[in-house]
Amino acid sequence: GIQVEQSPPDLILQEGANSTLRCNFSDSVNNLQWFHQNPWGQLINLFYIPSGTKQNGRLSATTVATERYSLLYISSSQTTDSGVYFCAVVDRGSTLGRLYFGRGTQLTVWP
Amino acid sequence: GAGVSQSPRYKVTKRGQDVALRCDPISGHVSLYWYRQALGQGPEFLTYFNYEAQQDKSGLPNDRFSAERPEGSISTLTIQRTEQRDSAMYRCASSLGFAGPEKTQYFGPGTRLLVL
Description:
Order of helices and strands of chain A: EEEEEEEEEEE
Mean pLDDT of chain A: 95
Structural class of chain A: mainly beta
Order of helices and strands of chain B: EEEEEEEEEEE
Number of strands of chain B: 11
Structural class of chain B: mainly beta
Oligomer: heterodimer
Shape of chain B: globular
Radius of gyration of chain B: 14 Å
Distance between the termini of chain A: 40 Å
Strand content of chain A: over 45%
Number of strands of chain A: 11
Largest sheet of chain A: 6 strands, mixed
Low-confidence stretches of chain A: none
Helix content of chain A: under 10%
Strand content of chain B: over 45%
């Protein structure tokens, strides 16, 4: 199956700082989603972004499908941004809908 | 509207017992997915349905695991003769349709299973 690699694995920030999380994938995709797993274990959908750029408040994401990577930007981070951020993709060559997840980036934001 | 719901939220069972995990997708969503997540890992695919038809069960680890969605809505994931290695978070997701943003998967809160 398609390989998804996320970096960095861990990130520690002071409140107010900006950060960039990266997701590389090994093959063409027709679905890419970013999720936030909060400290209570809920997996919250942030973006559906197989290509292009989207913004939602302090978060934005860019996917360059031809180069097989996606970036998640978090600006003016807050303590509530802490948790694990996952990137997940669906293989373009597949007619099925299974998501392949990376191992995530653990983000800790200190006040 | 309500999101994906799962029950129970927590399940503790003894090795060898059968367990049934329930998922209630977002109303109107045609696709339903089951994933399993070990601590420190991303979710891993188990199986998925379009309406009541099971489209892909290649992620089910062995024949002790089965899933059904008989009326195209609620789904049940059953694990027979549980083993300690089955302990994990079991997540359910649903999506509206088959094209573009309709393929976005929305996840439920998960069922934390502990096998003693």
